Amino acid sequence: MIDKYLELCGYKPEEIKSQLPRVEKAFTILGLTDFDVERGQERISGFFDTNLRGVRRILGVLVRELVDLTLAKEEGGRWIYSSPPSACADILTAASLGNKDIHVAFPDLLFVLTMGMMFDKLDPIMEAAEGLYLEPGMAHCSLIQTRLGLYARNIIPRAVLQVSVGLICDENPKADASFEEFFGIPVQYLLRSQDKDWEESGRIQRHIDFLAKNLKRMVERVGEAAGGEITDDMLNQARKMARDFSKPMRQILEMGVNCDPPPISSAFVHLMRAINGMPLNRHNHEIAVEGANILCQELQERVNKGEGVVPKGSPRVLHGYVQSYVDPGIVVALEKMGISAPIEEVQLYEPDGRFSPDISGIEDPNYRLAAVLTQASIFNSLPVKSRVTIEACRRYKLDGCLWLVHYSCRPIMSDSYMMKDIVQKELGIPFMVLETDVYDPRYNRNRQLRPQLEAFAEMVKSYKASLG
Amino acid sequence: MQIFEKITAHLENRPTELKRLKEKGQKVIGYFPGDYVPEEIIYASGAIPVCLCHGGNPRPVGAALSVTTRFICPFARALIGDRLIGEQPLYNLVDMLVTPVTCQHLRRAADIWQHQSQLPVFRLGVPMENNEQGLKYYRDRLNDLNNKLQVFTGQAVTDESLWKAIELYNTLRSLLKKISLLRKNSAPAISTIDFIKLNHASFYADPVFMVDILSSLIKELERSVNEDEKGDNIRLLITGPNLAFGDYKVLEIANELGAQVVAEEFFEGVRYYWGNVEHAGSPVEALANRYLANKVPNGVMPAAASGRYDFIAGLAKDFKVDGIIWYQLLFCETYDIESYYFAHKMKQLGIPVLKIQSDYDVLDRGSIKTRMEAFVEMLNKERSSD
Questions:
Q1: Per-residue confidence at A351, pLDDT binned at 50, 70, 90?
Q2: ipTM above 0.90, yes or no
Q3: pTM
Q4: Can you point out the beta strands (E) in chain B?
Q5: B26-155 is classed in which CATH architecture?
Q6: Which CATH class is domain B228-385?
Q7: Residues of B with CB below 8 A from A415's CB?
Q8: Which candidate from A164, A193, A382 shows the least CB-CB separation from B137?
Q9: Are B26-155 and B228-385 in the same CATH fold?
């Protein structure tokens, strides 16, 4: 059974032969039965187009990362962890380049994408966190719950350093502080102040200065934990590795935006974006790059033939703020209703996105990264975000906005209704806010959202028809 | 006490008074609590500082759901709802809002105020770390606030006017602290509910009036203190993120149960009046030191916990409390994380902790009372077995 699963996840025959014992051991530790593996096959085949070789190869990267981290307690090595947003992914990758004994991961996101999305077996991990101290009913961030659950169930080794990113939320650093106190895991924080006034946009020097200094301290501390200095060369190499994957991924994103119909479901593009933000084991990274390049070619062939996930001329909507990590079925269902969602709001602000951050004339790498991060989607004020959303809807002739609100994320969820108000007043297009949990499978069932989604699809189709 | 009647009358007339002052050209600057917005800067600019700290009423909390989700805390929803339904007359007199960016809940409440009313809002960045870099950032933002207020009010702020305002608020805080410390006695001369009402009144009232009235009150209370009188009620300390003006449910229940809350550690409690601004360096430097560096941090800050445990344990010892009530609001995620460790630490010190949570719902009262009743009974048993 597991070999079939690995085949579906793009493992080559010789890789299955050599890796099967490790995979079996890891799956046993994780409590994955034959039934779970079979169900896992059905799930990923339902979410993604596994006829595409590139898709399968990329899915395999997640399985490999899961196996590596699950067996880490047996196989040894020292681990440095972080979690989204991926502000420090390159720093972590650089640390692993300088020392073969150092491994890096975003364990929470990895388990959401594998145990959650692939196998639908995240519940026991979430419940373990609730049993300890992240009680249910408080809308705690489910990504943090996953992290605590992994420690509570003793699945992953304790990190030699937890890189805590508090750029957006308060809960992430507070939770990491509690892990330090309870599990003795040292923490280095990456913090900033979220005091952008509504009239402020673009580069805010006080934010860039503050964050760049924090980033410098972060590089030093991660280097200390890894047992050696992180040099500029190592950082550049890590960034080059990231670009090796993001370059074909960007081409795929562009195909989604510019081609009618889009050649692949945006659910998979979203998954690629998630992987792009994670630090990967070097060997797994090479497989991810190989998979992305293969996929790029396969999709180009589809574009040439005019094939896609919806009929040509179908309505298109903007997806904000992010898609569900644990259940891509929401987007797949929308596409089956004949509506594509080829653009995510967050990607509009990325360095090579349509509303790129201004980093001209900044040489220092920490200041450049700080400038990018402080101009990213979530860091902008509501007027700036709504202006960009309105411009994007006009530029790409979009027929609606679907806002998936991760309700346990306070920074994201609380301005969605204001955004809806502004965009609808300006453009008059359908705008649907769906409250869900993008990481916790217990509160994210696309079937529960289906009636709202169907209503939205009808509204979008009527709107498009009214344009003639 | 006639003094309380005077305060009540002053607060009742305050909206009319502020309207009159606004007509004469003075500006009303509202700010959200958290003890990070120095009233001194607002006062020195010739404007009238008003801390917006009403809560406890479910009506505005429900009204806020028309513009936001339910997953932000009831205090932030009350701030939004009170402005929407106009139940708090002072809220609609505000010409400009200053919000400390301490948590996502207050941050979004300010966004909604601005979106709904186009009111100018100044967001005062509060770095989540208390170090040299954080202090510099905060000091720079205080300077920005100072400059913005001068433009907004048209009145120049000098070092002299800032030091004068600092002196006034130092006096106010000292008086509140002096009254607060009277509660260390086994038979306190003032109940905590009255003290908290005084403290809350100081956020809305004219500070000169408050200094005057608190000075009279202290004389009266000192006369009534009887060192020989012994109270035998269970003594409680209450702590958590914030205790809003009007959110007196837990204090009332404690009274009903024959227990006494004798100390409070909240944004609008001890954290406000415990420390004064020192006369050193420039006034803005001195304010930054007082409001960020030299105080017990709030629980939102990641590395705040150990400093807070020590401070609260010290208060518990000084005020001779039998137990602590951790009072938090629904969906306040950072304090909820800290509550677990707090209870754990206090247990090591032999201080029992009861965690209570509220959504400002009227239905809360029954379950809170049952839990507090059991807690007080347990404390009584512990005391009698000692």
A1: low
A2: yes
A3: 0.94
A4: 28-31, 48-51, 96-101, 121-125, 235-239, 260-265, 323-329, 353-358
A5: 3-Layer(aba) Sandwich (3.40)
A6: alpha beta
A7: 108, 111
A8: A193
A9: yes
